Amino acid sequence: MDDFNSETDSDYTSYWRDWFISSRGNEYFCEIDEEYLTDRFNLTGLNTEVQYYQHALDLVTDVFDFDCDDDMREAIEKSARHLYGLVHARYIVTTRGLAKMLEKFKKSDFGKCPRVLCEAQPLLPMGQSDVANTSPVKLYCARCEDLYNPKSSRHAIIDGAYFGTSFHNILFQVYPAMLPPKSQRRYEPRVFGFRVHAAASLARWQADEREKMKERLRVARIETGFEDEDEEDEDDLGEEDEEMELADAFESAVVQH
User: Helices 227-256 and 197-219 sit at what angle, rounded to 10 degrees?
Assistant: First the structure.
């Protein structure tokens, strides 16, 4: 515990969770309620996944009273951090845990989407596996529905299992009003204002495939989330078609010369 200034063992054990949450690199975590930590049902199965499980649990719950050398204490501290992370993944899908993570999400504590067209959409931490030591945490953008690596190297080494694969989806199911509208906006490469031919052809194909999928969803009466944007696109459709024709004509003229 390099960042924790302590003069006595009582100080060491009395504020472990406060120290853990306030330590640099742990900003993604929320504080787990003591009642949740002391309910053995919530810890089912973790004793087989955490070394020095009982000592680690005592440390996390502030009842640690074990005389040991520095090496042993360091090993127990490492196990305590791992135990807290595993319990954290279970806690954040509870009502209390979701509410705490929602507040952090509203304040953009997890960062904002680096994609320009997502307009600084707040991100959510998630794991690509529920098994510990499989992959590090990633950041999920609900607008473009893509994953990003954390900017900070301190965050990039956090185990993704400490957040799990379901948390971000459960949060938006419980709080549907927080789900941002989907966006079809994409970057379009241009040369002197004209779309690049190969990119324009690909864009047309993608647009056709998207429209076919939307039609299938409309027939199945499934909301796409793109309805409002579709109305705006219809107004610009004629202008885009004309622009496509001009782009093709421009490229033909360049090739002939």
Answer: 150
Name every residue whose Cβ is closer than 8 Å to that of residue 146 and which is 6 or more positions away in sequence.
115, 140
pTM of the model: 0.72
**Torsions phi, psi of 165, nearest 5?**
-90, -10
129/136 Cα distance (integer angstroms)? 9
Cβ–Cβ < 8 Å for 88, 32:
yes
Write out the chain in H/E/C secondary structure: CCCCCCCCHHHHHHCHHHHHHHCCCCCCCCCCCHHHHHCHHHHCCHHHCCCCHHHHHHHHCCCCCCCCCHHHHHHHHHHHHHHHHHHHHHHCCCHHHHHHHHHHHHCCCCCECCCHHHCCCEEEEECCCCCCCCCECEEEECCCCEEECCCCHHHHCCEHHHCCCCHHHHHHHHCHHHCCCCCCCCCCCEECCEECHHHHHHHHHHHHHHHHHHHHHHHCCCCCCCHHHHHHHHHHHHHHHHHHHHHHHHHHHHHHC
Strand partners of residue 125: 139
Quickly name the fold that domain 108-180 has. N-terminal domain of TfIIb (2.20.25)
Spans of all domains in the chain: 1-91, 108-180, 190-256
Low-confidence ranges of the chain (pLDDT < 70): 1-14, 224-257
Is the domain spanning 1-91 CATH 1.10.1820.10? The answer is yes
**Using an 8 Å Cβ cutoff, are 140 and 115 in contact?**
no
